[in-house]
Design brief:
Layout: E1 18-19, H1 30-36, H2 38-41, H3 53-72, E2 80-83, H4 86-99, E3 108-112, H5 117-128, E4 132-136, H6 146-152, E5 157-161, H7 175-184, E6 188-192, H8 204-207, E7 211-215, E8 226-230, H9 259-297, E9 302-304, E10 314-318, H10 324-329, E11 334-335, H11 351-355, H12 360-363, E12 366-370, H13 377-396
Length: 397
């Protein structure tokens, strides 16, 4: 197949900006938007007020959304606490549990080196408050070893918080095995699953986690809404709220419920549950096509992460002899990432890439392609052509 088209030109049908940054955020699915619209102007009641029709209708919609979110991760509706997103959920789980704990008995928190900053920074704060933070290393593929978990988790460990899948390199961690080790020592288990939910099967019962964070905008829902799964419900685990108010969400997340966003989150989860089996296969095929063609065209290109156990849509690519910023500046038609969207613009190299052994130069020569629901084969071929051309121009400059 001549992926550059006739006479080595990109087909006209592909001549459009191509978005390959779905791990940063996703567009709202049109079905999600359609589901949300009535809750801006027609069903506008406060779900906390059940004394009139508007309030009851809103509450019913929130209950339905809670069921949809719970179903996607095999939880019970009462175990879902809505939040503003995975960042808030991570903070609520980690800070909330730690500040309600008896630190004379359990004072340890275990995380890994490639966690999102929404986990790293709350733990940094807890270290300042006297907690003992253990950061597990990862190998060159971004994997945590179970032996390291066994060594780190003791009878003094309060919590282990490990991400399900990494946002930059896509590596998936063995959460079920990690939870088993932690529970043998009586420690709690939290999982940041923001990148996993909607892309791979997530089952809180099978994984046996105590808390799990998720975010709607990572799975074609609206921004500004997410959830924290709490095993047994919000009052079953001692968690101190981050702030106080009207007592919504079982007292863990007060404030008037954002009904349109919650409804959209529920619809996005419903859709993801239906399409994920075939969508994951299709995205993996497109990702492999991208990598195969780039590897054939660019000598010395390297793929980061665990290629046997990673997200189906994610590819972390280290380019030889070029800076990623320069490469992206020469790629106005293709939207890619250089790492986590939450740290874009930072001067320092990605902590994830450093943790897997890349030096500063290699880290600054790395881009992330993350594919999604709107990407087709011709988009990938167009992107490959543009990337190869841009790499050649930067290399020659």
């Amino acid at each position: 197949m001549n992926w550059l088209g006739k006479n080595n030109r990109v087909p006209e049908m592909a001549m459009k900006p191509i978005y390959l940054d779905y791990n940063a955020t996703t567009p709202c699915d049109p079905r999600v938007i359609e589901r949300m619209l009535p809750f801006f102007a027609d069903v506008y009641g406060n779900p906390a007020n059940g004394l009139h029709r508007q309030g009851r209708s809103a509450a019913q919609a929130v209950d339905e959304a809670r069921e949809q979110v719970a179903a996607l991760i095999n939880a019970r509706p009462g175990e879902i606490v809505f939040s503003s997103g995975a960042t808030e959920s991570n903070n609520l789980a980690i800070l909330g549990l730690a500040r309600m704990s008896d630190r004379t008995k359990r004072n340890g928190i275990v995380i890994c080196a490639i966690e999102h900053k929404a986990v790293l920074l709350p733990c940094k704060r807890l270290k300042d408050e006297g907690f003992e933070i253990t950061v597990l290393p990862v190998d060159r593929l971004g994997r945590i070893t179970l032996d390291a978990v066994r060594e780190a988790v003791t009878e003094r460990t309060l919590l282990i918080s490990i991400q399900a899948a990494n946002n930059e390199i896509g590596t998936v961690q063995p959460i079920k095995a990690i939870a088993e080790i932690a529970h043998e020592q009586g420690a709690m288990v939290h999982c940041d699953a923001a990148q996993a939910v909607g892309k791979i099967p997530v089952d809180v019962v099978d994984w046996d986690v105590d808390m799990l964070s998720m975010s709607a905008h990572k799975l074609y829902g609206p921004k500004g809404v997410g959830a924290l799964f709490v095993r047994g419900g919000g009052r079953s685990i001692p968690i101190e709220p981050l702030y106080y108010g009207g007592g919504q969400e079982q007292g863990l997340r007060p404030g008037t419920t954002n009904v349109p966003a919650v409804v959209g989150f529920g619809e996005a989860c419903q859709i993801s549950g239906e399409v994920m089996p075939h969508e994951a296969v299709e995205l993996a095929q497109l990702r492999d096509l991208l990598e195969m063609q780039l590897l054939a065209a660019i000598p010395g290109l390297a793929i980061n992460g665990d290629q046997l156990n990673r997200l189906p849509n994610t590819s972390s690519l280290t380019f030889p002899d070029v800076d990623s910023d320069a490469l992206l500046l020469n790629l106005p038609e293709v939207m890619l990432g250089t790492g986590s969207a939450c740290t874009s613009g930072a001067v320092e190299s990605s902590h994830v890439l450093q943790a897997i052994g890349l030096n500063r130069t290699q880290a600054q020569s790395t881009i992330r392609a993350s594919l999604g629901r709107r990407v087709e084969a011709n988009d990938v071929e167009f992107a490959v052509a543009r990337i190869v051309s841009a790499w050649s121009r930067v290399l020659a400059a």
